[in-house]
Design brief:
alpha+beta, 60s Ribosomal Protein L30, Chain: A, three-stranded mixed beta sheet, 3 strands, 34% helix, globular
């Protein structure tokens, strides 16, 4: 397993992983109603923002962004989402 040093690349990979997990469960990013971003360094957020906008576009889930240490020092972002489909 390789982890890029670049926070934008890590953001993209995390969102690709999330998209795949959602697909496996019969959902997509359109179904995301809440997201949480955890970054060890606040100054990394501006580099993540364009990637987050690319994936979420007009979806605009409720969001919390936290600045906190992550267990693996190579990790520059962790993303958690909650998906829901009315039905």
């Amino acid at each position: 397993m390789t982890i890029s040093d670049d926070v934008a690349e890590q953001t993209r990979q995390a969102l690709e992983n999330i998209s795949a997990a959602l697909r496996d469960a019969g959902f997509s990013l359109v179904d995301v109603v809440r997201s949480t971003y955890i970054l060890p360094r606040a100054e990394d957020f501006p580099a993540c923002w364009p990637v987050l906008r690319e994936y979420f576009g007009e979806i605009r889930p409720a969001n919390t962004t936290l600045i906190a240490d992550l267990v693996d020092q190579r990790m520059r972002i962790e993303i958690e989402v909650t998906a829901h489909r009315a039905g």
